[in-house]
Specification:
By secondary structure, the chain is an alpha/beta fold. It has a domain of 152 residues: 2-Layer Sandwich (Nucleotidyltransferase, domain 5). It is built from eleven helices and six strands. Strands 1, 2, 3, 4, 5 and 6 form a six-stranded mixed beta sheet that branches. Strand 5, helix 9 and strand 6 form a beta-alpha-beta unit. Helix 1 runs antiparallel to helix 2 and helix 5 packs parallel to helix 11. The N terminus is likely disordered.
Length: 313
């Protein structure tokens, strides 16, 4: 991708987002070259740079191509002006899996570069990431042992796969996340995520966390309070009414709408991953696409931050 085509005046379209994301990722790699995927010193250097790879992956998610082969054919036909050198599908897949750490780091860099990052309210929930349906798939899958059978109460269905646990702002900006087995206890995963990144809360005294009824327990709430987090959730059956219950009804729909964006517009459950590394990078790819759109809309001064309409065609 040619840096010369960068438009410093942010506008709301896919080409501008792609160019801005490429430049931001390229700057990140120049400042922290250790984030680039490892490759041997001796050999043929790839013609597609790592910054272009990240940009290509985001555009794939935004445009709704779940097949990598179809995406690369589309790119060769319609996006040569942005990506003059493209790998074949096996090479693209291999490089994408190797770039998981870079993608994860880019998510955080973009998120912290928005005005939304400092929001004093977070929302937490988990959503299924289905990985297979037939018994034969379950028996033969490389995901066996990580993926497992679980139940989605929101849609009254059983599934075989994983769960994406997501902490985000009310605008849908991803703050932290984890990918676990379908039966993982949500409140335990939340505590693990917060413990893994203690700096998240050090500068946020009095952070408010909105959650559903699954995030309960005296010990759990005591540990959150020790982190300086105020938990708002609906009262469970038999519990006394909880403070702040009147705030939950309008705000609880926000996390469902974020999950719907990931699934309905970014095809989270059509990831087509067959191995732990493959599923992980495809989930990261969708989270990065959502974060990049929010980042770009924030930079462009758009009134609705979590709108992907300008980027899905």
């Amino acid at each position: 991708m040619d840096e010369g085509v960068q438009d410093r005046c942010f506008t709301n379209n896919l080409d501008t987002l792609a160019t801005a994301l490429y430049v931001r990722t390229d700057d990140l790699l120049k400042a922290a070259p250790h984030l680039a995927p490892w490759r041997p010193r001796v050999g043929i250097a790839p013609k597609l740079s790592d910054a272009e790879l990240v940009t290509l992956a985001v555009m794939q998610a935004l445009l709704g191509f779940t097949s990598e082969a179809r995406w690369l054919r589309h790119t060769r036909t319609h996006l040569r002006h942005l990506f003059p050198c493209l790998p074949q599908q096996p090479g693209y897949n291999k490089r994408l899996r190797a770039a998981s750490s870079l993608i994860r780091r880019t998510i955080r860099v973009l998120a912290t570069d928005t005005a939304l990052w400092s929001d004093d309210v977070w929302i937490v929930d988990s959503t299924p990431v289905e990985c297979g349906r037939s018994k034969e798939t379950v028996k033969r899958s490389d995901l066996a042992g990580w993926a497992e059978y679980g139940y989605c109460a929101s849609h009254s269905r059983f599934f075989w796969g994983l769960r994406l646990h997501l902490i985000c702002t009310p605008h849908g900006l991803p703050v932290a996340f984890a990918l676990t087995g379908a039966k993982a206890v949500e409140r335990e995963i939340l505590l693990d995520v917060l413990a893994a990144e203690p700096k998240l809360l050090h500068a946020r005294p009095g952070q408010t966390l909105l959650a559903d009824k699954n995030y309960y327990g005296r010990k759990f709430e005591r540990e959150l309070a020790e982190h300086g987090v105020r938990l708002l959730r609906p009262a469970r059956k038999g519990e006394a009414p909880r403070a702040g219950a009147h705030l939950l009804k309008p705000l609880r729909q926000l996390i469902e709408s974020v999950n719907n964006t990931l699934k309905g517009q970014l095809d989270l459950e059509q990831h087509d991953g067959r191995t732990p590394a493959g599923v992980t990078v495809r989930v990261l790819q969708r989270i990065l696409a959502l974060t990049a759109a929010l980042w770009h809309n924030d930079q462009a001064g758009q009134p609705i931050h979590r709108s992907l309409i300008a980027y899905d065609h």
